[in-house]
Give the backbone structure.
Amino acid sequence: MSMQKTGFYGVLLAIIVAAPFLFPDFSTQLATLWLFIIVAMTWDMTGGQMGYNSLGNIFFYGTGMYVAAVIAIALVYDVGEYTGAAGGGRYDFTNQQYITGFLLGTLGAGVFCAVSAFILGYVLFGLRGPYFAIGTLGMAIAAGELVSNWDWVGGGQGITLPVYAGDFDQTKLFIYFAFAIVGVILFIFLKWLYSTRFGAAINAVRDDEEKAEAMGLQTLKYKLVTWSLSAFFIGMVGGISAFQLISFEPLESAYQTINLGIFMVVCVLLGGKGTLWGPIVGAIMFQIFKEVTWNYFLGWQWVALGALIVVTVVYFQDGLMGWLMHKKPEWFGVRVESKDDTVAEPAE
Amino acid sequence: MSIIEVSGVSKSYGGVKANHDISMSVEKGGITGLIGPNGSGKTTLFNSIVGYHPIDKGSIKFEGKEISRMQVPQIARLGLLRTFQQTRIYSAMNCVDNMLISLPIRKMRFMDNFKRNTPEDHERADRLLEFVGLYEKRFLRAGSLSFGQQKLLEFAMALMNEPTVLLLDEPTAGINPTLINGLIDRLKRANSEFGITLFIIEHNMRVIMNMADSIYCLAHGEMLASGSADEVQNDQRVIDAYLGAH
């Protein structure tokens, strides 16, 4: 890595670590920003890099929440009894139990979601284009309805999780860094993944799946692995979100198809599909947009969001990074046709 | 020895009998041609062989193995590859990336996917791009190439995959006549130097008569004639079919 790059990443890491201390009042917003960055990057794995636009990735977020919560509770108490009390009764967790539940819960959520993506993918990857989008959306909506009727996990009331017995600000910092660590790991992982043959193969699926099959790529295998990897990370941040929210219910906070489920797509569209940095830049832009409209245009925030989506989709399809790539291809190492446009004669 | 063995294959689309009771074979190591007027069922036969659609009747064997029930990637992984009449390349990537993605993955383990391409892979890609005359253009987006150049790129990608048999659907269609001679030469070299068996659909009679060891002629979905270039060229039924007397 060149000096400049090392310096760039060094500064970035310093900002990540320092941000919650410099802006303590915004640590919740910063944590949410990380959430957006992570779900946008994972959405882009299938949507941008592989050409499969899922509208149901929120399924893994919600499922991650529930799995993490159930694991954390089950380590100490009987889940049915705990949710039956719906936040009432005395169910104390020591800080040790909280930390163990948090770690095993988020990890378990990731693994569970990765496995479910693999299984669901067998059915859903038979669908292409808009049918895949609708199919996955249906999956997420159905899951929300099913879970909200499942009493063992609290039904429509949801679950109230244990609270860390320490300082409130400390908990916020803890949550911020949990998100940040997953985000940094995800970034490093994707930077590596997209540089391998695997990354090239999923790009091939996006550009021409039929050709890829004709060249002997087992496209289903690549699609399943990609979606599983993406679900693993979404599941984990779902788990972290569960501990951040403390109390959550199925339709508005876990399987929130029209909120986070759409936000992640908008983030990627804003930043630029199919690029490493696009989803990150897009998530930052979106979080700023959202905070501003939700604070200063309350009542009109959904209209503003709708307008943003329309403008992006109609006029700005490639997003910021795509637009830059188009304007300044040389920044991205893309070479354009030179003036010498003659067919190169073969060297005989 | 024949490497592809087609016997009694029929395929209909609704009421249209695209192929009716076709039997033929492709000799290992040779160049076999398939000709016939438009709509005579040549591409349908190709699609049947590489598994694009199930056939109604008959059997297709590759290296003695029945493949008529197998799916496209499975057949491709046996080393039986095809190119498309309407060229298909990954247009958003540059030529080198197009080549690298065409590495013979069937010869690797799945975990090899998580490695980067080796310098040898890059070298081979460059060599084959040079072979088809696209070396100068290797860093350009494949989509920005002309149609003829895209055909050459697709051919190079197929070679990168190290196939045993290559099915080419009209390799010279849409290519500048001055480039055609170069392409014929390269196809012959792919056959003689790389040992790839070729099975070619071609409309350009000069091209196919020049290359093929044996030629099959289809008309109205049925096998009309077969034999050496001379035999087929002088067959009255073939001439009639092309002139519309059939």
Remarks:
- Chain A touches chain B through 31 residues (CB under 8 Å).
- The two ends of chain A are 40 Å apart (CA to CA).
- The beta strands of chain A are 159-160, 247-248.
